[in-house]
Amino acid sequence: MNEIKIGLIGFGTIGAGVVKLLRNNASLIEQKTGARVALKWIADLDITTDRGVSTEGIQLTRRVDDLLHDPEVSVVIELIGGYEPARTFVLKAIENGKHVVTANKALLAVHGDEIYAAAREKGVEVLFEASVGGGIPVLSAIKGNLAANRFSTVLGIVNGTCNYILTRMTQEGADFGDVLKSAQALGYAEADPTFDIEGVDTAHKLCLLLSLCFGTKIDLKDVYCEGITSVTSEDVDFAKNFGYRIKLLAIGKLDGDRIEARVHPTMVPIDYPLADVHGVFNAIRLTGDFVGPVMFYGRGAGMDATASAVIGDVMELTRDMLAGGSRRCAPLGFLDENVAALTLKPMGEIVSKYYIRFHAQDRPGVLARIAGSLGKFGISIASMVQSARSEEVVPIVIMTHEAREGDVRQALEEIDAFDVIRERSNFIRIEDNLE
């Protein structure tokens, strides 16, 4: 029996899941690949804490170089996350002629070009299915069975923390802050949840999805990124009344030779499949010119789901090595020379429908002044709700027809300066034409 030896960097939750999967399904992996996949090394700063899995027969070390320089190790799995020292370890593994499997979306979103170029020069592969959507096999589908399609859109709920928070706000009427504290207590949110709730994690994943769908290089700093911290229970209730649910979406659209790349809270109709993705689950929706709309759904994070994707990549590498080849498919699915930089469409030129909420003094003529400013900037009102008088300041909600984002922002800047407006207006974009 052939044997493929693995080195694992990072023995946290996902690393423990990798060990567990290799222990539990070793015979199945052998039956499907024709090789024994053996974990030879685990490198971590903490090699004494019990992770609840057996490490019998595995060499534990605090020195990553022990596995990076072991000639018997063919594949290095990187699961420490972040930019450094992950970048250094991955580049050193490649330099030593080892294939790399990673779940590190942040690393690839920022340093992907450098890593892919190094792998190309050394003739090794970098696989990263687990970096987007956990156990959902969306990246391999884009590069594989769906590769013959020209994609026009990719939309995704790809952060379980935000989806959990918005789900509870929707189902229970809870406030953002209270749900965040609960998510932290349950382990669904980090002690410092900034990357999640401010949309940065989602933006990392969108960069990878856009690169694979459109064969382009995306600079993270160019992706419009807005988190969910401004979404209130009041917004959630109004969304329900209008027939929508609020989701944090990663949105990529091809518009001629330009790309829309944006992350922000979005209202989607309650009868759309994306609106029915609850809790920590993820979903990614693609539209191809021949396949049409396709949606992938499943657990977007967690020990077992992510380990499933990591070992799936290891098994793909194993098959390639046994067949005597590698790099059957370039990391982004396009031949390297055909990956080109496309222009990103400025947010001011985005066209969308909008939900806009004002808090204004309940005086005669207020609605007329607001409508006048919206009309001045070419924004047409589709519907409007003003809550019944209960106090001097009342919420006013307006749903617009399609409008340019730049025009909406100019109108709101003017309206927010009115003496009758008591707090800064809030707006949420609407996606209700996904075909």
TrEMBL record:
Keywords: Amino-acid biosynthesis, Methionine biosynthesis, NADP, Oxidoreductase, Threonine biosynthesis. GO terms for molecular function: homoserine dehydrogenase activity; NADP binding. It holds the Pfam family ACT. It comes from the Bacteria. CDD domains: ACT_HSDH-Hom (cd04881). Its EC number is 1.1.1.3. This is Homoserine dehydrogenase. It comes from Geomesophilobacter sediminis.
